[in-house]
Amino acid sequence: MLQLKFIATTTFGLEATVKREIQKLEFENISTTDGAVYFTGNETVIPKANIHLRSADRVLLVMGQFKAFSFDELFEKTKSLNWSDWIPKEGNFYVTGKSIKSQLYSVPDCQSIVEKAIVENLKKKYKIDWFEKTGALYKIQVAILKDVVTLTIDTTGSSLHKRGYRDSAVIAPLKETLASALIELSFWKKDRIFLDPTCGSGTLPIEAAMIAKNIAPGISRKFVSEEWKNIPAQYWKDVRSKAYSDINVDFTPEIFGSDINPKAIEMAKHNAVNAGVDDCIRFETKPFNEITLKGDYGVCICNPPYAERMGILEDVENLYRDMGKIFRKNKTWSFYTITSHEEFEKLYGKKADKKRKLFNGNVKIDYYQYYGLKPPVDK
Ligand SMILES: C[S@@+](CC[C@H](N)C(=O)[O-])C[C@H]1O[C@@H](n2cnc3c(N)ncnc32)[C@H](O)[C@@H]1O
After folding, report:
1. pLDDT tens-place string over residues 175-184
2. pTM to 2 decimals?
3. Using CA atoms, how far apart are residues 53 and 58, in angstroms rounded to an integer?
4. Which residue segment(s) compose the domain that 198 sits in?
5. Ligand 1 mean position to 167 CA, how many Å?
6. Which residues form ligand 1's pocket by a CB distance below 6 Å?
């Protein structure tokens, strides 16, 4: 089997979370840069990484990495790579691009040069002059950063946050990948109570339930590289059947989701059915200030409105005050929230134990973390 190099792309701030997931999957030579985690492995990595990674956006196969300061250099070095190892005669390939702080800054020119170089390479290999492009899709990316060119082929297709269960959502739903990362970054474990009191379409409770039941996030969706001839269908089957057999069917976590909007609760229930976790989440329509914290050592993780994307500022600020009123006085519950509102801690009435800078789409947010007491025996 070939030794291949991959990049798991991610949102800025989540590199360490994705790195931990990659370590758990036992891939090799792991290193991180901004928004990317590099690792190596053979072809079986493609189904494994795509089906199992919870917080990464996509998995790219690295075809080559080199310095280029001129179009000639870009053309020759691209042409010398082994494109036919992956792209068959009938492959439907196209090139996207980006360039940051580099001499080759014209992205359309770089894209067209890379495409020409690949065509020249494949023409020679397949001894044809014209490519029908009727076969599987190969989305190639030329990414140039400080004159270092990275050429990749996307193995994922539609982004990994599209698990397939969320076919209805509120105005500003959380990406499933970010929801999963927020849970990963918290102290929640599957035997502690989980609560999201502004759950919208249910993303956080559903992701928590999938983690608790060990349901692989990509178990029931398709990936672009499933159409690629050089990854035998059996690899995908093997990874999926192992993922199915690893589901913790006998465990029912205690997960709660509520929201002021009854339509959101309808969507959340529907999405939970799609995800196969409706049996372990109790959803109800309820305004935040009416929630009661049942049991001890629960963990609340929420994504309230922050007025930037939805909500009226005064209502949002009152909601943040209510958060403080309910959670500040409870010693055992932990409370986590994201917001872009700079005055959150003042409104909540307490400085967070930890604050982490993240991005929700293009919006800069902070992840505020208030730690309750640890359970006597932290299982
Ligand atoms: C940003 S959305 C949550 C999106 C959710 N994470 C998802 O992925 O769909 C914020 C949610 O807070 C709810 N909300 C706003 N004010 C509330 C309140 N006072 N009590 C409970 N829910 C509230 C809204 O109805 C909305 O569904």
Report:
1. 999 999 999 9
2. 0.95
3. 9
4. 176-222+248-370
5. 17
6. 169-170, 172-174, 197-201, 203-204, 259-261, 264, 287-288, 303-305, 310, 319
